[in-house]
Design a protein that fits this description.
Distance between the termini: 41 Å
Shape: elongated
Number of helices: 0
Order of helices and strands: EEEEEEEEEEE
Helix content: under 10%
Radius of gyration: 15 Å
Strand content: over 45%
Amino acid sequence: QVRLVESGGGLVQAGGSLRLSCAASGRSIVSNYRMGWYRQAPGKQRELVATSGGTTNYADSVKGRFTISRDSVKNTVYLQMTRLKPEDTALYYCNADLTFLDVGGYRRDANLWGQGTQVTVSS
């Protein structure tokens, strides 16, 4: 079984910074071809924050403030968040498209979600 484990959320004042990490672990991971971050604020739909694959994409609301990076060897993705605003407050989820070997040694593709990590920005 493969899973995503997030860390790095917390409470920060407006203008501050946080760094989120998400590591894929479990069965033999062959490759991860896209990893990214989404967020969901109370009463709102989940939205894309940033993804890293063949291209890197950012939501307009975070461009210039957030930076996504990926370590393909460690199957880890990071989100460096700077100049945080109260409207960035949300539950942040890691998402990944990857390939792993199942118990029979066959390649399987999977789209996975992490459990979420809370980011709260106070004004």
